[in-house]
Design brief:
Length: about 150
């Protein structure tokens, strides 16, 4: 459910106008650690899908993904400032990214404790990651995930 905090936030899917120092600050505030602005810029510019959440001219969230466009995608770096967490923005960003990826298998990297959030989108625990797979029962039988 979207709240007043996130209703006026627009999602954009290009890197135009991003101040990478500010983007690195979003990671630190999230808190998801320290990122070097130039490395962050290069990782996002080289990703097949980027998602930026803007409140006016202020960057409040971002995420990125890689994809072969056919079978597999990987989501990285979904984060937002603390005041937007738990307000529906992460759900909006995930839904928008999954729709644009449009692959049957999606893996993501998550920080511990966020697994219940990603489970809502069909992701299942893996030994070193979480995955949203086309056929979770088959993957579980092969030992790749635990259902």
């Amino acid at each position: 459910m979207e709240t007043a905090v996130t209703m006026n936030i627009a999602l954009r899917f290009d890197t135009e106008g991003v101040d990478w120092t500010n983007a690195a600050e979003v990671f630190e505030k999230a808190p998801l650690g320290t990122r070097e602005p130039d490395v962050l810029r290069r990782t996002f510019e080289n990703s097949g899908l980027t998602c930026f959440a803007w409140r006016g001219e202020t960057l409040v969230g971002l995420g990125r993904a890689l994809s072969d466009g056919v079978a597999h995608s990987v989501i990285y770096d979904l984060c937002m400032i603390p005041e937007c967490q738990g307000q529906g923005l992460g759900t909006r960003m995930m839904e928008a990214m999954l729709e644009r990826l449009n692959t049957p298998n999606v893996v993501l990297w998550s920080v511990p404790g966020k697994e219940p959030f990603y489970a809502r989108f069909g992701f299942n625990p893996m030994r070193t990651a979480m995955a949203r797979l086309e056929n979770p029962e088959r993957s579980a039988a092969q030992g790749y995930i635990t259902l």
